[in-house]
From TrEMBL:
Protein name stated in the entry: Methionine biosynthesis protein MetW
Transmembrane segments: none
Classification via InterPro entries: Methionine_synth_MetW, SAM-dependent_MTases_sf
One Pfam family recorded for the sequence: MetW
Organism: Aquabacterium olei
Range of residues in the leader sequence: none
Length: 194
């Protein structure tokens, strides 16, 4: 999926005028899009020097920080929406970060590559780890610490007292509501504290 398409899909889930925290905000393009089209304010958190510089050039408020350190610099309910788009699979402290997301934000939005997508299943059935647009790395050269599926995230959310408000998949720029665990390369969840 093109980054621009993902931004439009996610932006529709963010209420206009929201205060937003984007965890692993990359180059700040989504926060800039939310600022320009939805009148949102907020911050991004990013560790990569070059991406922090890109955020600054876009006029996006960014804090350079390793997400593994948590979100202790923010008070409870500091944000209306906290975004974790393609970050969970890179974190060691996934469970703690989900709880922190629910603590500092009223709503959480998470997306991640769906390992249960049928091409991934077919690749594993053939005895190989998948290499696709959603998971573009060889198993020995990936920044991903873990992989997940829709069903896995639902269990993790329940275990941590989160209530899923909406879930769907994304495939080739389109929303997938029917059998997203099988038919979508990207999983998207909107949640709140239970």
């Amino acid at each position: 999926m093109i980054e621009r398409d993902l931004h439009h899909v996610i932006a529709e889930l963010v209420p206009p005028g929201s205060r937003v925290l984007d965890l692993g905000c990359g180059n700040g393009a989504l926060l800039a899009h939310l600022r320009d089209t939805r009148q949102c304010t907020g911050y991004g958190i990013e560790i990569d020097d070059a991406k922090v510089l890109e955020c600054v050039r876009r006029g996006v408020n960014v804090i350079q920080r390793n997400l593994e350190e948590g979100l202790s610099l923010f008070e409870d309910n500091s944000f209306d929406v906290v975004l974790q788009l393609d970050t969970l699979q890179h974190l060691r402290n996934t469970e703690a970060m989900l709880r922190e997301t629910a603590r500092v934000g009223r709503i959480g939005l998470v997306s991640f590559p769906n390992f249960a997508h049928w091409p991934h299943r077919l690749s594993v059935l053939r005895g190989r780890m998948p290499v696709t647009r959603a998971l573009p790395y060889q198993w020995y050269d990936t920044p991903n610490i873990r992989v997940s599926t829709f069903a896995d995230f639902e269990v993790l959310a329940r275990k941590n007292g989160l209530r899923i408000l909406e879930s769907f998949g994304l495939q080739a720029g389109r929303t997938v509501s029917t059998w997203p665990n099988l038919l979508a390369s990207t999983a998207v969840f909107k949640f709140e504290r239970g």
